[in-house]
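Below is how a single chain appears once it has passed through the pipeline. First comes the sequence as given, then the structure the pipeline wrote out for it. We keep one example in the README because the format questions we get most often are answered faster by looking than by reading.
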Amino acid sequence: MAGTVVAVGLALAAAGFAGRYAVQAMRHVEPQVKQALHNLPKSAFGSGYYRGGFEPKMTKREASLVLGVSPTANKMKIREAHRKIMVLNHPDRGGSPYLAAKINEAKDLLDGQAKK
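Resulting structure:
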């Protein structure tokens, strides 16, 4: 019985020392990690994504950002882009109904203004 208590005590002490060592090691590594993250190019974190939310009324610029096409794209390019994005974001496949509605709104807006 006493041997078990001593073994548990030693295990707890070892865990405490290991945790203390890990915390001290992280204090020395943290500035280096922050510096490395700061030096990474901005494109490493997906700067291709549009920062911000949706506007209350969709504009041609926003619609082209949603579909990933030029604002002057033809109907065929708009429909191809819409299909690719909808396959990935369709609500029947686990996508968001809100995003699907915005994708459809973008297609309708650009498709109505596009030339053949």
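The mean pLDDT is 82.

See the next section for the split statistics.
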